[in-house]
Amino acid sequence: MWHPEPELISVREAEVSRDALREAGAAIWETALDYLYDHAFGRAMGPHSEYDALRAAFFGPSRAPAPAPRDPTMLQAVLDEFAERIAPHTVSAYHPRSFGYFTPPPLLASVAGEILAQVAQQGIDIWHAGPIGAFVEEEVLRWLCDLVGYGGGSFGILTSGGVMANFIAMALVRDVHMPRLRGDGALPRGRVLEGVRVYTSDQTHFSIGRALDELGFPYETLVVIPADDDFRLRGDPVAAAIARDRAARLLPIAIAAVAGSTNTGSVDAVGELADVASRAGLWLHVDAAYGAAARLSQRDAARVPDLERADSVTVDPHKWLFQSYDIGGLVVREGSALGQAFGNRLPEYYRAGHAPGPTAARDHDGHGATDQLNFWRLGFEGTRRWRALKLWLSWKHVGSTGFAKLVEANDDLAAHLAERVAASDDFEALPANPPLSVVCFRHLPEGRPGPTAGTPAAAALDEHQDRLQRALEASGEGWLSTTRLRGSTYLRAGILNTQSTMNDIDDLLAHLRRLAGSLDGG
User: Fold this and answer.
1) pTM score, two decimals?
2) Which of 295, 315, 385, 442 to pair with 21, CA 20 to 30 A apart?
3) Phi, psi (5° rounding) for residue 499?
């Protein structure tokens, strides 16, 4: 045999491979546990936080990738290399003061689902290639539709994340809703896309604009309307913009709202926007990639109202449902719209999934009760990994009530951070009261009030936040990102962490104060 561990390559004979696979599994899991307890809980970021330093640490003096390995290696040697070269330098989602981007520590059941899905290797594109896997995704999508508040006829599709979900939503706007508005039934392409308008706020995720760009719309299609003082898009300014554009003989087609913005966690006035969309005949899409999970909490659901009134909603389980990367999703109130937009081309090699089933009856998920469920006809992807299994296992393991408790705990941590900031004389938050579990705040070395925007002192304060963020990252004692709000730089704590306590919040502020003192001293 060409490999030193043939029992790990050809595994069909249980008497030859089962014990070896069990030992390999134990070695893999032990490597994972070493990562957790030797690194992940010790530092929020590996010791080489600067780009050039980490390139040199990983690649060596050349700072360039090595050639592909020519010869096979024992699995334990590969695991040892992971432990030595990779594990110490990771960003740790598990660290209790890791509050950077929306990267939660995954639930154990999610990790289990990822392992089982990869071993089973189901292709969730055509039903025939992964039949039970398609049903698992169908069930998970039903749960997500219920989460949003959709009823019969709704359906959806799991994606890599919110970017792809938002992309699909904008494709539905172009290929399903726009022909209805035009009344000609033709797919809009080329010059037909000129003079179209989609309305959003300055807090909307960049992927809405990117999707419109890639779908062929001119740059001016996206109309960005300033959010209010609480970073929310309201109905009246959108209605005014629609009236203005119609008077100019333009064609408004959609509103793209957000429920849990990346910047601040802000939630647009979805009910007001739904009223505007209904009166004007526009498609309403809500990017609730982060915020939708709050609806599982009886206490906090009111923070994310009216999602059921949207035509489509983005939900990302790898955010606030604590799933391992990757799993995003789009749910659509009129589930058949997905097939309308994506089901028209019929590859020869997918011929087993071309024809409908023997009945035209429609079930609650928007496809025939006996029609084959072929996800390649509902989105951009052909090859699709079995993303649903980990969420299915996690939901079974912790239940909706468990998810609610985890979400509420994060909201409580954010409220605690905001309260500590408000009670201090050297920090300030914007907004003062976090709408969900994101807190944007900045350190004021000279105390309150901060300098006037646009002054040299304000520019120096912005630089201070960047230096403080870098110092925190280098220390390993926590991790925050930064953002720009109202022309100023703020530290941003995105609290999606199952391992954090109130003490960790207090420790974070104490660390920042110590680091700020050392920066000033330098």
Assistant:
1) 0.95
2) 385
3) -105, 0
